[in-house]
């Protein structure tokens, strides 16, 4: 195994391990909150769902390449490739859609109530689940082409217009199918990112106005819960847009060549998965509910460990 292959495998393993751990902690924290009888706010429900989709993305996109790099050949057959690629495409699509949903819901939440929002704001909690369902159905339909073109590698040769993922090939067979698929996926992503950026700019404007209105008043107390939530949303949006930009620069390049280098494909996989790996740690550090549950669990476990040590002595 040469150095480049080793670096690739270790990078995917570290990214996967860090992302799976962070998203699992977020999911367990919210599960504990629900089990103790507390009600989740719309933003908390969206963050919980975001952690789930990020976990789906990491397990289907980073684990198989890592196993392939370290010598596990013929990992998936044709049906296995179709399921994994389809699940990854849906997870990736939902990641951008739910981050956009988070930004839009937060913008509506902190907007001063007016004649148009007086009816919408109280109904926000009841709109979360239907919006999730709509996004799942929409992206399942958009991504339906992925399993049609996915297959297990046949040999060491990679045909033109084929994405070589190592563990699977996505063979579009001709340039037209290749470009149509790329345009459809990129068009959806850019539409949701544009909406995400627009709502985030509106949140920034509202926070700027609020800071001027409250200048010098209770400065030491900091912002309220809605302001903290808005700042968390803005951080996640900026993080997503940065990695989305890198991902799509590489994707546009891939659309312009008939045969994509495996190194380029690996770079795109790595950068497109960075958001899923890093976002849970921003949620943990900025969300008081999640942080409190983690601290509470750690403090609960510490006395048990101390008692066990005393008994052993």
TrEMBL record:
PROSITE patterns (alphabetical): G_PROTEIN_RECEP_F1_2
GO MF annotations, alphabetized: L-tyrosine binding; monocarboxylic acid binding; pheromone binding; pheromone receptor activity
Domain G-protein coupled receptors family 1 profile: from-to ranges: 22-283
Keywords: Cell membrane, G-protein coupled receptor, Membrane, Pheromone response, Receptor, Transducer, Transmembrane, Transmembrane helix
InterPro entries documented for this protein: GPCR_Rhodpsn_7TM (IPR017452), Vmron_rcpt_1 (IPR004072)
UniProt family annotation: Belongs to the G-protein coupled receptor 1 family.
This protein's name: Vomeronasal type-1 receptor
Organism this protein belongs to: Maylandia zebra (zebra mbuna)
């Amino acid at each position: 195994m040469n150095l480049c292959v080793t670096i690739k495998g270790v990078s995917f393993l570290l990214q996967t391990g860090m992302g799976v751990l962070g998203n699992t902690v977020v999911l367990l924290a919210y599960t504990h909150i629900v089990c103790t009888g507390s009600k989740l706010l719309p933003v908390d429900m969206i963050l919980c769902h975001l952690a789930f989709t990020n976990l789906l993305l990491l397990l289907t996109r980073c684990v198989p390449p890592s196993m392939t790099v370290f010598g596990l050949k013929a990992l998936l057959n044709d049906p296995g490739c179709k399921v994994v690629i389809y699940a990854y495409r849906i997870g990736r699509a939902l990641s951008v859609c739910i981050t956009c949903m988070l930004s839009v819901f937060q913008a509506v939440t902190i907007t001063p109530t007016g004649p148009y929002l007086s009816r919408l704001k109280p109904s926000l909690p009841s709109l979360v689940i239907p919006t999730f369902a709509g996004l799942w159905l929409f992206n399942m339909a958009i991504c339906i082409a992925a399993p049609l073109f996915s297959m297990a590698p046949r040999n060491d040769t990679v045909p033109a217009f084929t994405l070589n993922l190592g563990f699977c090939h996505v063979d579009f067979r001709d340039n037209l199918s290749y470009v149509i698929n790329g345009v459809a996926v990129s068009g959806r992503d850019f539409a949701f990112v544009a909406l995400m950026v627009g709502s985030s700019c509106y949140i920034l404007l509202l926070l700027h106005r609020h800071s001027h209105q409250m200048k010098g008043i209770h400065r030491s107390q900091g912002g309220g819960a809605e302001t903290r939530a808005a700042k968390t949303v803005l951080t996640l949006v900026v993080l997503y847009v940065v990695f989305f930009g890198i991902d799509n620069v590489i994707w546009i390049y891939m659309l312009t060549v008939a045969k994509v280098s495996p190194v380029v494909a690996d770079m795109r996989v790595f950068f497109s998965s960075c958001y899923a790996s890093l976002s849970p740690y921003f949620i943990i550090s900025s969300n008081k509910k999640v942080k409190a549950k983690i601290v509470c669990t750690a403090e609960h476990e510490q006395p048990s460990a101390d008692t066990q040590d005393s008994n052993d002595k």
